Amino acid sequence: MKKIIIAVVITVVLVGATYKLAVDTEAGQNFLLDRALSARMVQPPVSEFLGLEVMVCGSSSPLPDPSRAQACIMVRAGNRIFLVDAGSGSAEVLRLEGVPMQLIGTILLTHFHSDHISAIADVNLGSWVAGRPARLQIVGPEGVNSVVAGFNLAYGLDRSYRTAHHGEDFLPSVLGALQAQTITPGVIYAEDELTITAFEVDHAPISPAVGYRFDYMGRSVVVTGDTIVTKGIEVAAKDADLLLTDALSHDLINAMSEGAAAGGMDRGATILKDIMDYHADTKNIGKMAAAAGVGQVAFYHLVPPVQNVVMENIFMRGVPSDTILTHDGMRFLLPAGSDVLEIVEKN
């Protein structure tokens, strides 16, 4: 036993000495840095999934949550990547999750609230630097031209600095400017087996506001953006494999509003009360989805974002048990020619 104790002590001493040598000396620090960079700074191959790949790159609303970015859904069909909205923090989620930024060619905007557009510039820069071969398309209803013109103006000097620093060959200035496309409800894209359909949603008094449906190789995904539950969504989501929908818990928002009022935060209480009439009530979504024949319902744009188990349980009151409460980085894989839907947790 004595020999075992001595061996353990010697091992502990050696490990401690090795650790101190590694972190406290220049040679040790350089060695650890080289090993870490060798593991991380490797360009992963661009793999192509046969079917639809969906990732939540922002599951929050304007109410703050340190663990969630604002509204953003990535939809990938082959080597085409589309984003539905790009709220604050979503560009960081995309990069941290290893999304090949150079394949992001289009951002589809549902409407122009700040929490749906504030990361457009970050996505534009990230995809431009990554080697995007064409201008980033910003697609949306009437008003998108003004949004794009504003971003192009605000970031004009930034673009010029980066091209001047890295060179026109490396960062072509023409690819740094956003390009707007105004759409109306109906089919807005149909190419190589992928069809994207815009449909009207009710986010009054915000108008116009739209959602998007993706159909590819026999699979379908619907992203609502911000809306109340309507017959129009039921029609748009008919027999969809996956419905990603705006979701608001009246129980939580009522409690928060009453708490704010009791604490003397009258403006906050008023705002919380106001937002309840233009988001989808969690307790109304299941019936609509069942009538539409939706395969899987998933909540995003959570109002309010849930930050603990108690909030999660309250949020999911009265909701069908198979409904998914998403988080940033969650992926849904829908293989072509199948009815399988695989859920992949955050990397």
TrEMBL record:
Keywords: Hydrolase. Its EC number is 3.1.26.11. Residues 69-265 form the Metallo-beta-lactamase domain. GO terms for molecular function: 3'-tRNA processing endoribonuclease activity. Signal peptide: none annotated. It comes from the Bacteria. It is an enzyme of class 3 (hydrolase). InterPro entries: AtsA-like_MBL-fold, Metallo-B-lactamas, RibonucZ/Hydroxyglut_hydro. Coiled coil: none annotated. This is Ribonuclease Z. The lineage of its organism: Bacteria, Pseudomonadati, Pseudomonadota, Gammaproteobacteria, Cellvibrionales.
